[in-house]
Amino acid sequence: MHGLSRYLRRSCWATGALLLGLTGMAEAGEPFNVQTPGAGDGAFFSRQNASNVGDCGGDNVSPALHWGQVPAGTQSFALILQDPDGQKGLGVDHWVHYGLPADLGKLAENVGGEGKLPGVGGKNTRGVTTYLGPCPPIGDSPHHYVIQLYALDLAPDALEAGLTASELRTRIKGHVLGNTSVVRRYQR
After folding, report:
1. 8 vs 14: CA distance, rounded Å
2. Alpha-carbon span 8 to 22, nearest angstrom
3. Taking residues 93-98, what's their average pLDDT?
4. Pairing of strands 92-101, 76-83
5. Could you give the 3-state DSSP secondary structure of residue 35?
């Protein structure tokens, strides 16, 4: 009888673990995480990720992102891509997007353009509601680009369009179930 009881406990645990894995929800102790596939934390963006504005010379292709171990109760995600080195240390917000549905676990490359992504576009430093790739001054040390992902207890349609990164952070205060980040770099 003890063998059957042990088998049933293991079987129930394995089924529960499989279900948690399928939904992407985290078990206790497993951290919420975001990654840029094919490049580790601190890796350089490619030229294609750079802005296509002015002399930046890029293609303005937003990076692919994957995330997992989502906190239980997550209803939506918010994303901010910021260069804290930009504007001589005052920072530049390159991408602000929120209202991403909770069942989303990845973004394909090049979805940062208008209408390519579910959710709501917020305003970056230039006042644009889409991805704007890196374009640090020529000769500057490599700039760091922090991609911050927030798991929220807010419905995807809870926030109005067009919030800046600062406004978004203020509005989600008290609604963040977890956050995670990855850093990429770029230099011209």
Report:
1. 10
2. 21
3. 98
4. antiparallel
5. strand
Read off the pLDDT of residues 21-34 as tens digits, 9 standing for 90 and up.
Answer: 334 455 556 799 99
Mean pLDDT along residues 55-84: 97
Using only C-alpha atoms, what is the Rg of the chain?
19
Average pLDDT over residues 142-166: 98
**What are the domain boundaries of the chain?**
25-186
Q: How far apart are CA 57 and CA 60, in angstroms?
A: 9
- Contact criterion met (CB below 8 Å) for 136 and 111: no
Question: Rounded mean pLDDT of the chain?
Answer: 88
Sheet holding 65-68, edge to edge: 33-35, 65-68, 106-107
Element (H, E) at 2: helix 2-23
Q: Which fold has domain 25-186?
A: Phosphatidylethanolamine-binding Protein (3.90.280)
Query: 34: which strand partners?
Result: 67
Backbone φ, ψ for residue 83 (5° rounding)? -105, 100
Alpha carbon distances (Å) from 58 to 18, 48, 138, 164, 187: 42, 5, 14, 24, 12
- CA distance linking residue 94 with residue 123, whole number of Å: 9
Over residues 3-8, the mean pLDDT reads: 35
